[in-house]
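Reviewers of the previous submission asked for a worked example of the structure-prediction workflow described in the proposal, so we include one complete record here. The input consisted solely of the amino acid sequence. No template or homolog information was supplied to the procedure at any stage.
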Amino acid sequence: MPTAPWMKEPILIPSDEVLNISRIRKLSKNFNNRDDWSLTDKIKGGRGKQAMRKIVDSITKLDDLTEKRGQLPQKEAEGYDFSVPIEEVIGEEEEDSRMNPRMPWVVNQKIVFRRTKKERVVTAAELSLPESLLKKLKCDAEKIEKWVKVPKAGVTEAVVDEINVIWKRGELAMVKFDIPLSRYMDRAREIIELKTGGLVVWTKKDTHVVYRGLHGSPSYGSSKLNLVPTSDKIPLPKSVVLNEDVSAESLTNRAVQDDNKTGKSLEESTHFAGMEENFSHQLVQRTLYEREADRLLDGLGPRFVDWWWPKPLPVDADLLPEVIPGFMTPFRLCPPHVRLQLADDELTYLRKLARALPTHFALGRNTKLHGLAAAIIKLWEKTHIVKIAVKVGVPNTNNEQMAWEIKRLTGGVLILRNKSFIIFYRGKDFVPPRVASLIVSRETELKHCQVEEEGARRKALESLHVNNKEVHNNCTVGTFSDFRDIQAKYELLKIGYGVVDVEKEAEKERLEKELRMQKHKLEILQAKIEKSDAELAKLNSSWTYAEQVVDHEMITQEEKQCLRKMGLKMSKTLVLGRRGIFDGVIESMHQHWKHREVVKVITMQPEFSQVNATAMWLVTESRGILVAIERLRKGHAIMLYRGKNYKRPPKILSGNLLTKREALQWSLEMQRVGSLKFFAYQRIWEISDLELKLKDLLEKR
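From that input alone, the workflow returned the following structure tokens.
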């Protein structure tokens, strides 16, 4: 063994007791992997809440680990899953709280349920194509490098024509979608299969690969809309395309009639009708939300097939009539005791209600909206709110002009307008067309009855005038002679006092009322002034000036100039605030004089006479020597010299001045008295003016 320098002989130790350094290092490494090391590993702060929570969690994990390892073999214990089902956690909550007591700061942990995954939609290609062919088509689709770009307007005729051109050279065509269809690829798949008649076999992000079908070249151009996404490309009637209610029997009868015209056999027509019947069965299997929305929109117009959101499809407002001859804004009548305008809470409620409603119309035209207005009025008979979407990708759309035109034609209430939606409320004064026609007819009948009654009344008056003609000629009531008789009978009524000047009396009453009000306000102000004067007198009685010093120290003019220059260069100043001079100011001056000879006091008083009075007061209270008063950019600077024989007084606060709190109260009372006197002067001036006006009015009478 190696020995220390002060040892003369080496140490003889048996070989089994020799210190092995490498073994110690291995032990130290194994020491870090102990089970109890997790109690203090990576814990910051021994007394923090987070540290205590981690220690408790480590203890519980260690206990669970030791119990499981004691029960299971070595290999099973290492790979054992310690997760507990949610049902067991809910059921054994009370038992766990007894076995493992929680810390006071630990709250009950919330149970979070995982979001259920969206069920995968089975496409038409997976239902109709063989699995081997579908797999082959997917492999070929991954190798395609060129695609057809779909604009924001959707799958237009130009896009369908490009797809048909690609299908003439091959059986697959790649289509890449732009916003908004790229956000709803399921709806994009439905639209592309509907308009092209192909099958989407492969999808990745914003791209679809469309298969033309089992039968060679495409058989449908861009002008036809095909709703059934099968390889045979069977066109359905327009009623099915527009999501109208069509029965299976009517579909079969139509197919048979069309095939008889074209010369097809009965078997083929029956086959086609069966496929249409299957499709109608798929329409019935829609959700209740879609069926109710379709029932609400049935009969309003054709649907917008390029709708980029999930179904139900809105009505295409651009396909409705532009101008309807004789169209007029509907009649409106507000019920009695009902406020016509919407309150803020009502507007908020309607906006929240409209958020969950389906979109009723899709609009891309700014003007000529007679057909849309008629459809909206018809829809308002079933619902209170109409939701209109602005088409994306249509050039020159202006939602503000759209909203103004619809409001002008329908008279509804606009509750929301942005670049995507326009929402209208039918209003509290909305009357359905049938009820409005009844109200109008009833009002016309009442007006007709009033005209007839007025005519009958006039005839009765004319006949009465003819019968009483002689009495009327002999009667003097209401004539000028009757007036002269009354005037002669009542001699007390003079010409000047017979007529009452109503306007002058009203003006007199107004002036007297205003005069009384101004006098009442003046009394209130005077009472407040008296109260403030009492408070101010109480504060003024609690302070006095210091005694004048007879033997005052004098300095020469040269010394004043030198001290003035020192004061101008000083950056340490003492600022007088709204409190003015109180005991704290004098104490601060002596504190300045403790370290320097000159103190510089800044005051914001506007008048020089006030600044001079403040300087004299500071000289009296501090026993210093006034050096100079300088005008600054803002305010004035008062420079005071402590004197050659200056000694810090043992008692700075003599008690003759106000304290800091009393000085603030004195300043507030002074400000209050000044403002009250100003308003009192205004009231006195208005009272004198009213008295002059009243005097002039009485003199004119």
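The chain is about 50% helix and 10% strand. We consider this example representative of the routine output the project will generate in years two and three.
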